[in-house]
C-alpha cells in the first residue's frame, strides 16, 4: 500500500505559499502522492492552480485532486485544456484527477448552478473531456499522458460504480468512512469492473485526517468542526474519532487500511505548519518509498 499526504487547504488561516513547502517536503520524505481538495464556498485554494505550483516545485510525487467538484467547470473544453496543461507541466503520469459531484449545495448556489443535476453534469463533462483528450476535437494542448490523466471518482452511489467502470482508474473513498463499508463498496466495484469488460482491477484510495505534535487534537478538532459543520454533529464526531493524532493511531490506521486491501492511503493535514510532514514521515518510517 502506498501512502500519500493531503494539503491542509480546508484549514482556516492557511498561508497559501506554505503549500509549495508542503509539496517539496512531501517529495523529499518519500510520500507517493500529494492531494488537493476542492470547495468553492470556502477558503480552499483552487486545486488545479495549487497542483500547478506543486508541479513546478517537485519532480516525482504524484499530484491528485481529491476531489475536484467537476460539475462546477461548465466549459468542458476549457477544463480539458487546463487539465492537459497541468499534465504537461507535471510530466506524463504524475497528474491524477479525482472527480465528484460534491455534497454541498452552497458551492452550486455560488455558481448559480442547479445542485439537483450535478450528477448528469459530471457525466456530460467526462464524456466531452475524454473525447478532447483522444484528439476528437481541435482543442489543445494534448495531455502528456496518453488519452489524458487517469480519472478517479468519489462517492458511493450506483452512478459512481458506473463512472469508474466506464471511464475510471479507481475510487476515492470519503473521509471518516467505516472500513467495512469500504470493503463492501470495493467488492461491488470489482464486480461492475468485470461486467464492463475492463482488464485488470480498479484501484482504491482513501483519506484519513491527521494532526501531530503539540495541541494536535485541538488543531484537528477545530479544523474538522469548521469544515464539516454542514454535515451535522454526528458526522463531525465520526471524522474526529477516526482521525489520527498520535503515532499509535497513525500505525493503526495504516494497518487497518492495508489489511482491507487498499492501494493508497492519504493522510490529510489539519494543521498548516509544513513540519507536520516530518512528524508524519518520522512515524511512518520505511512505509514510505
TrEMBL record:
Keywords on record: Flavoprotein, FMN, Monooxygenase, Oxidoreductase
Superkingdom of the organism of origin: Bacteria
InterPro entries assigned: Luciferase-like_dom, Luciferase-like_sf, SsuD_RutA_monooxygenase
GO molecular function: alkanesulfonate monooxygenase activity
Gene Ontology biological process terms from the UniProt entry: alkanesulfonate catabolic process
UniProt KW Oxidoreductase keyword: yes
Gene3D superfamilies: Luciferase-like domain
Keyword field contains Flavoprotein: yes
Record-given protein name: Luciferase-like domain-containing protein
Annotated source species: Streptomyces malaysiensis
Source taxonomy: Bacteria, Bacillati, Actinomycetota, Actinomycetes, Kitasatosporales
Amino acid at each position: 500500500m502506498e501512502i500519500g499526504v493531503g494539503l491542509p487547504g480546508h484549514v482556516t488561516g492557511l498561508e497559501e505559499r506554505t503549500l509549495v513547502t508542503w509539496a517539496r517536503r512531501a517529495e523529499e520524505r518519500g510520500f507517493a502522492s500529494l492531494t488537493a481538495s476542492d470547495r468553492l464556498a470556502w477558503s480552499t485554494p483552487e486545486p488545479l492552480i495549487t497542483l500547478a505550483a506543486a508541479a513546478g516545485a517537485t519532480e516525482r510525487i504524484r499530484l491528485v485532486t481529491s476531489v475536484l467538484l467537476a460539475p462546477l467547470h461548465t466549459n468542458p473544453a476549457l477544463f480539458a485544456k487546463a487539465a492537459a496543461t497541468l499534465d504537461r507541466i507535471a510530466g506524463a503520469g504524475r497528474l491524477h484527477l479525482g472527480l465528484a459531484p460534491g455534497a454541498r449545495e452552497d458551492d452550486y448556489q455560488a455558481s448559480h448552478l442547479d445542485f439537483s443535476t450535478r450528477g448528469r453534469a459530471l457525466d456530460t463533462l467526462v464524456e466531452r473531456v475524454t473525447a478532447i483528450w483522444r484528439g476528437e476535437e481541435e482543442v489543445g494542448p494534448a495531455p502528456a499522458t496518453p488519452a489524458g490523466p487517469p480519472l478517479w471518482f468519489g462517492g458511493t452511489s450506483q452512478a459512481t460504480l458506473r463512472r469508474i467502470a466506464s471511464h475510471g482508474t479507481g475510487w476515492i473513498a470519503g473521509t471518516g468512512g467505516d472500513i467495512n463499508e469500504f470493503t463492501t463498496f470495493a467488492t461491488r466495484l470489482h464486480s461492475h469492473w468485470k461486467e464492463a469488460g475492463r482488464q485488470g482491477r480498479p484501484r482504491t484510495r482513501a483519506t484519513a485526517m491527521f494532526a501531530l505534535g503539540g495541541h494536535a487534537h485541538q488543531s484537528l478538532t477545530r479544523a474538522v468542526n469548521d469544515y464539516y459543520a454542514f454535515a451535522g454533529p454526528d458526522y463531525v464526531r465520526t471524522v474526529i474519532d477516526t482521525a489520527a493524532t498520535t503515532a499509535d493511531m497513525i500505525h493503526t490506521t495504516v494497518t487497518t487500511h492495508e489489511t482491507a486491501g487498499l492501494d493508497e492511503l492519504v493522510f490529510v493535514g489539519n494543521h498548516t505548519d509544513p513540519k507536520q510532514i516530518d512528524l508524519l514521515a518520522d512515524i511512518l518510517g520505511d512505509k514510505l518509498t
